[in-house]
Amino acid sequence: MGLLKLLFIIVIFLFSFGEIIRVPFAGLSIKLIDIGVVALAFYWILLSFKNLKKIKIDKRLGFPILIFSVVALLSLLLNARLLNINELFVSSLYLIRWIAYASIIFIIPMFDNSFKKIIIKLLIFIGVVIVVLGYIQYFLYPNLRNLYYLGWDEHLYRLFSAFLDPNFAGAFFVLYFLFVLNILIESLKKQARFFSFFLGVISLITLIAIFLTYSRSALLMLIIGSFVFLFLYTKKSFAVLIVIIFLLATALVPKAYTTEGTNFLRIASSEARLGSAKQAIEIFKESPVFGVGFNAYRYAKNRHGFTFGNWEKSHADAGTDNSFLFLLATTGIVGFFAHFYMWFKILKINIRSKLLIASATALFVDSLFINSLFYSFLMFWIFSLVGLRENM
After folding, report:
1. Of all helices (H) and strands (E), which one includes residue 220?
2. Which of 71, 94, 290, 316 gives 295 a disulfide partner, CB atoms 3.0 to 4.6 angstroms apart?
3. Average pLDDT score over the chain
């Protein structure tokens, strides 16, 4: 168990590297956190086989996750004839990655309560690191023009931190803000003044960071997530007030209308997302029952003639901007409902967790605009919250 704890701490440490460092493998560039989580899950599986009688898995969650995993695998096998060996291998790696992240739900409950408290403190710390990195980047490295050749967008004058994308950075900041806000409320109840002040400062700088991403999806995620969270705390009038304040603050953010990327009324990205959705629907029509294969979207997109340039390495060609359309296109109607059933069970079991309900709701909203449900860092965060449900 000691090594499992160490591996988990290492994974949290690797979280801070974001998208900055990647390891080339089989034509892919793999994130450090992906390597860490797969290693963590692999060791957990070995440990489980070694101690079958001691390891307990919550079957209420294990069964739905197993169903989706099997459906995702089946979707790949049914489309194997359309993929070459390398494409099938690469797509399979993504399935392995998803299973590894989902295993976090079962790994964390194995730890003792004292270590779970350490995990919570480490999550607070790593969030601060990501936010601070974001501010440093915002003032010293305001765009990604020099990484355009690697498939990254420019993102002029927007805060994107270690994620190199303001939309995903904004999504993480919202989840982190809700996380800290939850701990802050509990801290105030215990009258821990110094710790409460510390958490209050973190909440404020995180909130400002969200606005500096100029991500409309993150702002909508913030408004809905905060409203749900405060509403569940029976602070209904305060929840409405917060929504109004956030809407007013949107118009007051500096540089809000200086460039296309920092203009909240921009239409270019909206048109791009609409085009991405249309492509996903066309790909879904190819195989509506089981999809074109879990994470084989890039290759289906190429078959339909929707790719151009360096499509095999382009981040935009790896998926679509809507997680639900991505699910439908890659795993079909069967996979979509299997994934829906999984989340239904997760939320039903944790119906009393205000933080998890608010975070999941916010994530679902954001997933309508970017592929949040399958983004490594957001998967790690939300699955960690599920694993920590008894301690939050």
Report:
1. helix 216-232
2. 94
3. 87
pLDDT at 391: 62
Q: What is the pLDDT of residue 275?
A: 85
Q: Are 322 and 375 in contact (CB under 8 A)?
A: no
Asked whether residue 327 carries a pLDDT value surpassing 70, the answer given is yes
3-state helix, strand, coil in the chain (%, to 5): 70, 0, 25
Within 10 angstroms of residue 285's Cβ, the number of other Cβ atoms is: 10
User: Which run of H or E residues covers position 184?
Assistant: helix 166-189
Structure tokens at 256: 């809000």
N residues, the chain = 392
For residue 339, give the H/E element and its range: helix 323-349
Quick check: 28 and 315 in contact, CB under 8 A? no
Per-residue pLDDT, 382: 98
CA 33 from chain centre, in angstroms, equals: 13
Tell me the C-alpha to C-alpha distance, in Å, between residue 37 and each of 48, 81, 103, 131, 156: 16, 30, 9, 22, 32
State yes or no: pLDDT of 251 exceeds 70: no
Q: In the structure encoding, which two tokens stand for residue 31, read together? A: 């994130």
C-alpha torsion angle, residues 191, 193, 197, 202 (rounded to 10)? -50
User: Which pair of structure tokens corresponds to residue 196?
Assistant: 């409460």
Domain residue spans of the chain: 2-270+307-387
Residue-by-residue DSSP string for 76-90? HHHTGGGS-HHHHHH
pTM for this one?
Answer: 0.91
DSSP string, 14-27: HHTTTTT-EEEETT
338 membership: H or E segment, kind and range? helix 323-349
Please state, in angstroms and rounded to a whole number, the distance separating the CA atoms of residues 282 and 278. 6
Q: DSSP letter string over 224-287?
A: HHHHHHHHHTT-HHHHHHHHHHHHHHHHHSTTTTTSSTT-TT--HHHHHHHHHHHHHHHHHHHS
Residue 313's SS3 state is coil
| DSSP, res 37 | H
Element (H, E) at 136: helix 113-140
Structure token digits, residue 292: 């074109």
CA separation, residue 51 to residues 45, 46, 112, 228 (Å): 10, 9, 17, 41
